Amino acid sequence: MDDVMLETKGLCMNFGGLKAVDEVNFTLTEGQIRSIIGPNGAGKTTFFNCLAGRLRPTKGEIWFQGKNIAGQPQHKICRRGITKSHQITSIFPTLTVLENVRLAAQMRVTRYNFWGKYWNLKKINEKTEEILLEIGLTDKRGLIAENLPYGDQRYLEIGITLATDPVILLLDEPTAGMTPAETQSTMTLIKKLAKCLTIVIVEHDMSVVMGISSYITVLHDGSILAEGTPEEINNSDEVQRVYLGGH
Amino acid sequence: MISSDVWKYFFDEYKHIIVAFILILMMPLAIPIPTATEMIIYGLYAMGFNIALGFTGMLSFGHAAFFGLGTYGAAIALRYFNSSVWTAILAGAVLAALGAFFIGALCVKKRGVYFALLIAAFGQMFYFLALSPLKHITGGEDGLKEIPILSIEFPFFIDLAKPFPLFLFTFFIVAVSVLLMHRFLNSPFGALMQGIRENETRLQACGYSVLFIKIIAFTVSGLFSGLAGALSTVYLGYGNLGSLYWLTSGRGVVMTLLGGMNSFFGPFLGAGIFIYFEDTISVMTARWEVFVGTMVILLILAFPDGILGTLEKRFRKTRKAETSIAQAIGNR
């Protein structure tokens, strides 16, 4: 068995009487591209938000690097190395592309620097350039982020997430709303990133899921319905019934 | 070994400030000197206010608290402790910064209107404290009077009772503050503040403590507002109770919006225009508010992003050039 990166034990998240995430025991091994699929309202995004610290789980543990991080605030979890990109594009709209990435890139270098000058902080600039190249926005670095086409905004969002140097990257529907061509290049990007990162994806597009995942978790009504390789999931009768819509 | 690129970048960065300073120093040629002094004091106040509003996205309806803390901090130091003008100004600024720190720490968890009104409530609290419970210290409604005639002894003698030396002294403090503010707002921390204005949740997700950044930004905003308040004590020669009144907060908001909250010098220009109109028109008629109000409305209709904000937007080349110069230097 590979190294376990992240493990949840009995993770629960209730909203009033609704059990959005119900006793989830989830194990993530290093270097995986793990997809989480499930019908709408299955608790995928809630589960993600618990992992990333955006929500404080009602009950349960999240083990990462030998520590239970459940309930820690989001910025602390991000510094530990778990970063999430958002389902709805979330960038800094009136800043330039470069400034967007740089804001995230400076986190590991100089967190609260009241006096520095960017042109003196070589490490930040290098990191920013590297990320811009990776997401293919080098030429657009001077544009205001809100003026970018939608697909580029999604890339920028991934770039911001990457710039915080995550160990585990949580991507919430990275290809939502993209054209087929953009989806293809996003898949290529994700595969490339997976060489040095562990990636968890929530995705609805089954061709993406089947194309890139090394392992799939199916959520249904807040708990895990099935787990397995893409073939196993594709051949599972139960998954076909509740989600994939086969007969 | 500094190449010409670096000089070019320095010049690009500071040319606006140099032009602004020259214009300010030329003001006494056209405008009565006391009015000019008041204009730059309120200019500093509005710029301090805009650190919170324009750069961090925190609208405060209670900045009078910090302006007033600066005013009374300086007045109390001068009146009861017989301190020098330097110490008094420092005392005012530090008192305002402390006030902003604690009030900020209590309020920054709230956003938008709730934040604005909470701060406004604190502002009024200080006003009423100075008005009656602390009357024996603050002088109540009359303000804190009986401040000795002021002059600077160190490093050389300046007679602050004369308008022109007072103007130059005020300009000196304002200029240093503007340079400090510029450096602060262009630092990596300043970028984080803009990140909060743009998208607080996203910044939190990038590993920064949003509350911490907001508290610090608010404290610095209070510091410079308080510094302006302290200068107003030196300018008026007494601690003015009106400095704590909510109208001072309101004036800050109007000045900032008039000049442009997305521009570094916008609030300064807005404050200058506002004070100039107020001072000249109030001499002619008791109902000066009607005229100044109408003028502000017309100006805001003509310049929706504020005067300087709108002009900058129209004439600025793309920001591409700016960022690539910085980047080229950074990557050498």
- What structural category arises from helix and sheet content of chain B? mainly alpha
Query: How are strands sequenced across the largest beta sheet of chain A?
Result: 6-7-8-3-9-10
Helix content of chain A: 25-40%
Number of domains of chain B: 1
**Rg value of chain B:** 20 Å
Gap from first CA to last CA of chain A: 35 Å
CATH class of the largest domain in chain A: Alpha Beta
Task: Give a structural overview.
Chain A is an alpha/beta fold. Chain A has 2 domains: 1-81 and 167-247, Rossmann fold, CATH 3.40.50.300; 91-165, no CATH class. Chain A has helices at 44-52, 74-80, 97-105, 122-135, 150-162, 180-193, 206-212, 230-235, 237-244; strands spanning 4-15, 18-29, 33-37, 59-64, 67-68, 82-85, 168-172, 198-202, 215-220, 223-228. Chain A has a 6-stranded mixed β-sheet with strand order 6-7-8-3-9-10, with helices on both faces. The two termini of chain A are 35 Å apart. Chain B has 332 residues and is mostly helical. Chain B has one domain (4-330): ABC transporter involved in vitamin B12 uptake, BtuC (Orthogonal Bundle), CATH 1.10.3470. Chain B is built from 14 helices and 2 strands, in the order H-H-H-H-H-H-E-E-H-H-H-H-H-H-H-H. In chain B, helix 3 (64-80) packs parallel to helix 5 and helix 11 (266-284) packs antiparallel against helix 12 (288-302). The two termini of chain B are 13 Å apart. At the A-B interface, helix 2, helix 3 and helix 4 of A face helix 8, helix 9 and helix 14 of B.
